[in-house]
Every structure is written in C-alpha cells, then in structure tokens.
Amino acid sequence: MKVHAIHKHAQVSPQKARKVICLIRGKDVQEAEYILRSLPHKSARLILKVLLSAKANAIHNFELDGDSLKVSEAIINMGTPWRRVQPRGMGRADIIKKRTSHILVAVSPKEGK
C-alpha cells in the first residue's frame, strides 16, 4: 500500500529539486527526514513538508506505524512556468520563465514488518 502527498506549483525549478530528491529515494522516512533537515537548499524544505505530510497521511488515514515506513516513490515533475516580462532595449521585451515543480512523495510500510 502506498500513501502519498503532493505539492503542486512549488516555486523551485525541477532541475534543482531533482538533485535533492535523489538523496531520499528508497530510504527510511526517519533517515530521509534527517537528510532533508541538514541540507541548506530551498527545495529540501519543500520536500520535507511533503514527506511529513505523506507520513501523517499514513498514520492518521490508514493507521500505519510511523516508525516502519520507507520512501517508496519520490518524483519531481515540471509544473506550469510563470511567465514574466523583462524590458529590453529599443522597446523590445524578453519573456522570463520562472519554473515551478510538482513534488510527489509516497511512503509504504517496510517489507517484513
């Protein structure tokens, strides 16, 4: 059984967030939480919130043991980019794309428990 949590339109680029999420994939929830708390990246804070939400969903909605959970799935998908206009010379304009991410973290009980 997989229990998941999603944060859509997180204001961090998917490329930067994928570097952080690779560190927790397949780890115990407790260990993943320690890793994310020790990292200085903005995406680590956002991923930590989603991880804690998935853990809370597993405990409260499905009555699973919080100590026996592992990160079974951790995915960063590209969200809708925010488009902003940057004025340029001679009356022209450039489009600045501020990238967003969809963060999905799924937890499941460890095998053998």
Short description:
With 113 residues, this protein is of the alpha+beta class. It has a single domain (3-109), classed as Alpha-Beta Complex (Ribosomal Protein L22, Chain A), CATH 3.90.470. It has helices at residues 14-21, 29-38, 42-62, and strands at residues 3-10, 69-78, 82-87, 93-98, 101-109.
How are the SSEs placed, and which strands pair?
Layout: E1 3-10, H1 14-21, H2 29-38, H3 42-62, E2 69-78, E3 82-87, E4 93-98, E5 101-109
Antiparallel strand pairs: 1-5, 2-5, 3-4
What does this molecule look like?
With 113 residues, this protein is of the alpha+beta class. The chain has one domain (3-109): Ribosomal protein L22/L17 (Ribosomal Protein L22, Chain A, Alpha-Beta Complex). Helices cover 35% and strands 35% of the residues. The protein is built from three helices and five strands; from the N terminus they run E-H-H-H-E-E-E-E. The strands form two sheets. Strands 1-5-2 form a three-stranded antiparallel β-sheet. The two termini are 13 Å apart. The mean pLDDT is 96.
